[in-house]
Amino acid sequence: MGEHLVYTERVVGSNPAPPTIHGFNMKTLKLDSSYRPVEIVSAEDAFCMVYMDRANIVEAYDDIMFSSTYESYPVPCVISLNRFVKINKSPLKCNKRSILWRDRNTCQYCRKIFSTKDLTLDHVTPKSKGGPRSWQNIVTSCRKCNQKKGNKMPHEAGMIPFISPVAPPIHLFAILSPKDMHPKWKTYLDKYGYV
Question: Per DSSP, what are the bridge partners of residue 142?
Fold first, then answer.
């Protein structure tokens, strides 16, 4: 199969479609042999795994095909590998995006919800007083509360976080937003509590 594949839609008279569906980048949910979600890969990589008999198509995108000169193939939306995958339990990175997700864009001092751009991260125990950059010491804070607390310990400022900061549950799909998930993935992600 040394031919180049392109995306096409199964609509008479249409031009080849770009690799997106309604702004959704052509991605594929990869499951292991027990149908447990493993990761999200490009549709092209998923197709190669299927073509090389390393995986099977479980769900395909509707009305979109990979086409070569002589044949058309369904674009995989969900694939299952032919083997079980041991999941590495490495934690999510302790960064602003993950902290905001964990705290649900809520200031942990005034309990108000803000847009991402209006939030900062606060070291519960300030860095200057030995506070580490860790899940257990960083919370989401609005600018006003962060300035009010300043370089003080929580008891000195009278500002205790609403929810004690802890590391979030570890799983790969925790910070996927609904717009990043294809509807056909829901069945497979629901079983494991990822949606």
Answer: 119
Residues 102, 136 share a domain: yes
pLDDT in tens, 89-98: 555 788 998 8
Please give the Cα distance from 128 to 66 (Å, whole number): 57
Which of 70, 88, 106 terminates a domain? The answer is 88
Q: Which of 39, 55, 88 is the last residue of a domain?
A: 88
Question: What's the gap between Cα 71 and its chain centre?
Answer: 33
What sign does the dihedral 135-100-170-163 (CA atoms) show?
Answer: positive
| Rounded alpha-carbon distances, angstroms, from residue 20 to 26, 75, 138, 153 | 5, 12, 37, 49
Domain count for the chain: 2
64-89 tens-digit pLDDT = 998 888 999 999 999 999 998 876 65
Helix (H, G, I), strand (E, B) or coil at 18: coil
Residues 188, 6: Cα–Cα separation, whole Å:
28
Structural domain of 100: 96-157
By the 8 A CB rule, do 121 and 108 touch?
A: no
